[in-house]
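Continuing the batch. This is chain 6 of the set; chains 1 through 5 are on the previous pages. Same settings as before, nothing changed between runs. Recording input and output for traceability.
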Amino acid sequence: MFMMYKPYSTEWHRYRYLKEALDKYIDDYVDTDTIMKDILGIVCDRQEKAHAEYHRLEELEMKLDFRD
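Output for chain 6:
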């Protein structure tokens, strides 16, 4: 299935970058377990950063509320 996006749109670039990354894995004959592990690792790293940012903002909010 090929996604058709307007050329050079944000969606088109995202699709292109993802396709190029996956093509590189496939061209290098990387096994599917490694591909899945790498994708999961990227998602988990992003999740940890988002979680840490949430806690920093929550702490700031609490300090701001305390000053009222």
